[in-house]
């Protein structure tokens, strides 16, 4: 039996949003049982709240966006990934803008903040989503499959990229022990240099720099990699964050060329199935 958890104390972090380019102050705060992960927009009158749940996903263009009551937050996947890996059920995420800080483009800063905050067990059992059948989401040559798997969450991800610098990357990862902190959390967002101008014209990536995004062009990487297969590790990081929008999932997720759109489609399917069975 697993019990719900929250963080032991408030922690704060300041930084710029990856896509908005806007400075933001982030506070992670303890929350009561059954609160879930809740984003609080302190920059808006009344501090409206957006619950981090799969039905609230409204966009997956280059990031995962959540909206509730006409208020949104976006690029939540890195923070959600760290919260999932650290095992936090309930947390208030207060922000004075609509996008969390990008930090260094990974989830490591958030995971370190959570370690500083500490974790406390609460007096109510955690409801887990236990995969007991096969779920499949397809989009042409991209797909996600969720199948039963013993204990915890396992992700097997294949990334296929025609660029010679990237190529085919595969990683199989089990979310346990300190593996996430060492092997997944440090993996950063990656971009192709030829796409940067188009992204900025579309109002995306306005806060991106070589300090928080790994960039490659037709000839070389413009900054040093932390891992030879950093791209697929970051894909797993994103997937863990997106799937957390369904709840705590126990199962094996097999992904080929997946991104936020497929990730959140699976999260919505799992969330709906779980809510139906729980009701």
Write a structural description.
This protein has a domain at 3-127: lpxc deacetylase, domain 1 (Ribosomal Protein S5, domain 2, 2-Layer Sandwich), CATH 3.30.230. Helix 1 (77-86) crosses helix 2 (108-117), helix 1 crosses helix 5 (230-243) and helix 5 runs parallel beside helix 6. 24% of the residues lie in helices and 34% in strands. It is globular and about 55 Å long. The strands form five sheets. Strands 11, 12, 13, 14, 15 and 18 form a six-stranded mixed beta sheet that branches. It has a five-stranded mixed beta sheet with strand order 2-3-9-4-5, covered by helices on one side. The chain has helices at 77-86, 108-117, 179-184, 193-201, 230-243, 260-278, and strands at 3-7, 11-16, 23-30, 37-41, 49-51, 57-59, 65-68, 71-74, 91-95, 119-125, 128-130, 135-139, 142-147, 153-160, 168-174, 190-192, 214-216, 248-256. It is α+β, with helices and mostly antiparallel strands and 279 residues long.
